[in-house]
Amino acid sequence: MPFQTLRGATDLLAHDLTAWRRLESSVFTIAQRYGYRELRTPVIEDAALFLRSVGETTDIVQKEMFRFTDRGGHDIVLRPEGTAPVVRAYLQHHLHKTEGFAKLFYLGPMFRAERPQAGRLRQFHQYGAEAIGSASPWVDVEIITLCVHTLLECGVADATVWLASMGCREDQARGAQHLQERLTPHRAKLCEDCQARFDRNIFRVLDCKQPGCRALAQEAVKSLERQPGLPPTPFVLCEACVAHFNTVRQGLKAGSIAFDDTHVFARGLDYYTRTVFEVRSPRLGAQDAVAAGGRYDHLVEEFGGPAVGACGFAAGIERVLMAARPVDPVPVAEARQGVYVAIPPKSNLMPEAFRLAQRLRQQGTRTTMDYDGRSLKSQFREADQLHCQVVAILGAQELESGSVTMKDLAGGEQRTLPLEAFLEAVRA
Ligand code: HAM
Predict the structure, then answer these.
(1) Ligand 1 within 6 A of 124 CB?
(2) Which of 151, 249, 318, 398 could cysteine-pair with 156, CB 3.0–4.6 Å?
């Protein structure tokens, strides 16, 4: 085979797409139920959009963006994530003026030049939601609830929500200083990436892909003084951030959304402040995050908009489908659908058969036919393989009498009906 998909990119065949369509339809239904409206943004964006939001020191920007310069000299990337484009669109289309608080959801391909492995692709798909224009902790509660609700609807029943607060920018600065102090004696043991990120973004050590770095960071965090009423965290939370975090925890409890706030973690994108979460599934291997998100209270302002808060999440569709319990396949007998228009080979009835197929399609009937002059036996075999319900036979006799012979592939009976009566019977 001279041509194959690139590593980390996949074809989706019809039988894969049954589950995809079911997922898409569940996501649309649930997102709409929570008042989110769909938004689609382009796959290509200005590279600066992600440098300014996801952050220059992050893995995504440093090594995972598919980035190229077009003939006009523009620095372009295939979007690695959906939040920055949604915020760009929110401002570009003045939703901050017309809607103020905007609740948006999206679904589409994302691109990251990562080393492919199970659950880690270079072209993958996300669905997600962003609630832009509010600083209320109840928005965080709604976003996490919506995320969990969509996952449940998609069949992911046994996932765990990891919850934490990364605090405000000041809390992050204080936390960074503490973590740097604790990690300085171990600096030489950190991987090259973490050493480079040590001064500029120490929290990356917490989500480094090298387990050794993560373990050192965890130890360092454990050695920090516990803040009263809070799980262990590298972020030194101020009073307002503690109150925000507590309201989120209280809100999730009120909505019976189970969460685990005992893990020490940070999200690997720069825009996060306060609430962050990851949803992990025991059915996945090393790449166990099915969904993740959090609050980003400065991004809108950093993109030139008003100083308003925002919160969102994204789920990886391929991972959701891997983590979902398998759905029973539709029984073949029930799946029989539509008409196969069959004509005797060499009968010159193609124009009439095609006209009949078009009438069926126009009335809404799924219709297939043979274009290669194969034997009637082959046409029946194909009709069966395609799970058609009816074969409509159009031979010379039928043509002369203005009728169609229909054979029901499920029941087996066969009858000849005038054309209009046949169309009516199929419609019924
Ligand atoms: P993220 O954690 O980078 O966050 O990605 C969200 C989800 O996308 C992951 O939990 C995972 O399921 C899936 N995912 C990420 N990378 C890959 C990959 N290479 N292959 C397969 N699946 C992958 C974001 O993208 C943020 N925009 C989430 C967010 C929305 N935060 C606020 N609003």
Answers:
(1) yes
(2) 151
